[in-house]
């Protein structure tokens, strides 16, 4: 009986043509991958430039002289950067007071929305109620009502209460948000309900469960809500414009817009003030961008 002799890979003879063809296919695939990455890089760069152009334009305009701003020939970069425009802006208007007012308002609204949103979402998700889905639908329905439809009635109400030109008129109407409640509830849907039941069996109250167990495990939702609420509160314009009448309570968005007057120098200082307005919100976004994305997608996939 003949015994077959096994052939090792080293003893196999591979035709040179096959080797050359495999090398060509490998190089073609590598070239295709590099071209794809280069194309995506070019597209992303162009989109980034288009998106960042208003910011770049504001910074360059804040460093120009009044004569360069009104020049008919378009030049993006200033001939000689005028960093003194920023100091002149602070001397002309109480920008420091405006920034402080915006910081107080934005921080208070952010904390209020975190507390109210987490408590309301806990009630809708963990507590049993006959009409909780109907109430939740009504809460979401408020997101479809434009702010312009209620701003006049809200103004008349707070004016009747004597709240105009105060901090609480800027803060209290925005201490809760339907989008915040929705975001928290979507995140809570992935939370194990058995953990809540176990805590209740051990005698844990609802408030203790929220602040010692639920919220520490909800950092993505907290981060996303905090970043979104702070940026939206910092950029508010219409409501602060209507209810604030003095520099003591005027926010930075309103204060900067009022720096524009008939002279050309005020335009330069207004651009300098705009740059100062952008810095806090950009800083908050850069710090919390990963948490924001993670929190927004945390409730999109179950399991």
TrEMBL record:
Q: Where does this protein reside within or beyond the cell? A: Cell membrane
Using the record's annotation, list all stretches that form the ABC transmembrane type-1 domain. Answer: 99-288
Cell membrane recorded as keyword: yes
Transmembrane region(s): 38-59, 98-122, 134-155, 167-188, 209-231, 267-288
Note whether Transmembrane helix occurs among the keywords.
yes
Q: Which UniProt keywords apply?
A: Cell membrane, Membrane, Transmembrane, Transmembrane helix, Transport
Top-level taxon in the UniProt lineage: Bacteria
In the bilayer, the protein is annotated as: Multi-pass membrane protein
Q: What is this protein's record name?
A: Carbohydrate ABC transporter permease
